[in-house]
Prior knowledge:
By secondary structure, the chain is α+β, with helices and mostly antiparallel strands. It contains 5 helices and 5 strands; from the N terminus they run ββαβββαααα. It has 2 domains: 3-77, Ubiquitin-like (UB roll); 88-158, DNA polymerase, domain 1 (Orthogonal Bundle). Helix content is 34%, strand content 17%. Helix 2 (88-95) runs antiparallel to helix 5 (142-158) and helix 3 (105-118) packs across helix 5 (142-158). One FE2/S2 (inorganic) cluster binds next to loops. Residues 40-42, 45-50, 60, 62 line the site of one FE2/S2 (inorganic) cluster.
Amino acid sequence: MHEIAIKITINDEIIEKDIKANVLLIDFLRDELNLTGSHIGCDTSQCGACMILHNDKAIKACSILVAQLNGEKITTIENLQKDGVLHPMQEAFRNNHGLQCGFCTPGMIISGISLVKQNDKPNEDNIRKHLEGNLCRCTGYQNIVKSIEEGAIKMRESGDI
Ligand code: FES
Ligand code: FES
């Protein structure tokens, strides 16, 4: 496989590298950059544990090549907190016990932020529909929904919408 030169901004840092054209973003993040907060929970693009933000939209890092994001800017779960202060959506998950084992949580938080960026007053139905691309084996979703409801309020209050 031939290599291509990529330039991509990840978590506000410009990364320039020669990489194989077939490298998946999730493998690049985890194996090359040691950004292991994005998880691999399936091999069928169904679980959403790998989600990252691109232009305020959640995308599945297991389903896109690094080369496809050449010149683009992305944010991973590692860059949501600032100076030790959690992102409002992270804070809401903590307040509402929106996790148990935590495996799905990075993707849920990214997905929640993405929803609020599109709809800053999501109701329960909006949230449940939006989470169709995120699977959780532990929680039964109730507290995740509550977390995103509170996260939306906190994001509005903080002006992060
Ligand atoms: S690892 Fe990406 S959807 Fe499951
Ligand atoms: S909290 Fe365990 S998979 Fe969601």
